[in-house]
């Protein structure tokens, strides 16, 4: 279960929320479900401090990264910097980054490769727009994003990645893909990964669904054979709702 806090929570709010999540996680969910929290950059270290103090095994992730090692890239952050903060994961290619910040498939590929060489696991986001869903071939669109994101990787690199299928029309809209639609796309993604890197890598790869996941729909989504977890925006901003989502994984 991956929480994407997006541009929410001040430092103080982040620490309070982390403490509330840690309390819930440490009351019976340790070692049972893998949970990752992706705060804004400034929250990564303080949230990690809360988890470390509590011996809470929730991992930290970032929401973005730049692929260059260092230099004159105002406003950007490097893999090494994220690593120093204790990040184990990083989201790449989120639809909001693609839409508002012009992130391309090529950027996603370069970011994913840079993360892997810095020993951070990329969570590669793919997903079609409403226009593509209604007027074109969503599966072909998403599989082309997969092809581009994994271009030039070998199996050792690919096995470090997770994928999040997030239909753009379902993100933050309250409109969830049906479990069948989400499950079918995740199945196609797994088949594609098997074609590219073999059955072993494909069957072990975590494929998540994201898009208006909440306590009312998580059970049906997670019951789909090819959905291994969820990437959660809104419902991760409140400890009880987020806890009910990771509890649903058991
Ligand atoms: C997301 O930000 O990746 C996301 C899925 O958001 P929400 O759960 O709010 O739709």
Task: Write structural notes for this entry.
With 250 residues, the chain is of the alpha/beta class. An eight-stranded parallel β-barrel has the order 1-2-3-4-5-6-7-8, surrounded by five helices. The chain is globular and about 45 Å long. The longest helix has 19 residues, at 179-197. The protein is 46% helix and 14% strand. The structure holds phosphoenolpyruvate.
Secondary-structure map:
Layout: E1 2-4, H1 11-25, E2 36-38, H2 41-53, E3 59-62, H3 79-85, E4 87-92, H4 95-101, H5 105-117, E5 121-126, H6 130-135, H7 138-149, H8 155-158, E6 162-165, H9 179-197, H10 199-204, E7 207-210, H11 218-222, E8 229-232, H12 239-247
Parallel strand pairs: 1-2, 1-8, 2-3, 3-4, 4-5, 5-6, 6-7, 7-8
Helix pairs in contact: 1-2, 1-12, 7-9
How many beta-strand segments? 8
Q: Which CATH top level class fits?
A: Alpha Beta
Largest sheet: 8 strands, parallel, barrel
Superfamily at the CATH H level?
Aldolase class I
Q: Tell me the span between the first and last alpha carbons.
A: 11 Å
- Roughly how many Å is the radius of gyration? 17 Å
Mean pLDDT: 97
Order of helices and strands: EHEHEHEHHEHHHEHHEHEH
Helix content: 40-55%
Strand residue content: 5-15%
Uncertain segments are none
**What is the domain tally?**
1
Supply the number of helical segments: 12
Strands of the largest sheet, in order across it? 1-2-3-4-5-6-7-8
Shape: globular
Q: Could you tell me which ligands this complex binds, including any ions or cofactors? A: phosphoenolpyruvate
CATH topology-level name: TIM Barrel
The structure class reads alpha/beta
CATH architect. name: Alpha-Beta Barrel
């Amino acid at each position: 279960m991956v929480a994407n806090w997006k541009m929410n929570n001040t430092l103080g709010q982040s620490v309070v929320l982390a403490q509330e999540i840690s309390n819930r996680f440490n009351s019976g969910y340790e070692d049972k479900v893998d949970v990752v929290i992706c705060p804004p950059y400034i929250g990564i270290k303080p949230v990690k401090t809360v988890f470390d103090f509590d011996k809470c095994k929730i991992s930290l992730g970032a929401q973005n990264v730049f692929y260059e090692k260092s230099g004159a890239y105002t406003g950007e952050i490097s893999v090494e910097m994220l690593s120093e903060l204790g990040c184990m994961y990083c989201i790449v290619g989120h639809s909001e980054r693609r839409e508002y910040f012009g992130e391309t498939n090529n950027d996603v590929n370069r970011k994913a490769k840079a993360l892997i060489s810095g020993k951070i696991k990329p969570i590669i986001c793919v997903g079609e727009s409403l226009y593509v869903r209604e007027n074109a071939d969503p599966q072909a669109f998403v599989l082309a994003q997969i092809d581009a994101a994994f271009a030039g990787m070998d199996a050792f690199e690919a096995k470090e990645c997770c994928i999040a299928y997030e239909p753009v029309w379902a993100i933050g809209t309250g409109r969830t893909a049906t479990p069948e639609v989400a499950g079918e796309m995740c199945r196609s993604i797994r088949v594609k990964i098997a074609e590219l890197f073999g059955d072993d890598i494909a069957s072990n790869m975590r494929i998540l669904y994201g898009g208006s996941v909440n306590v009312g729909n998580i059970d049906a989504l997670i019951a789909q054979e090819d959905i291994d977890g969820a990437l959660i925006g809104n419902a991760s901003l409140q400890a009880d709702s987020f806890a009910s989502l990771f509890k649903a994984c058991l």
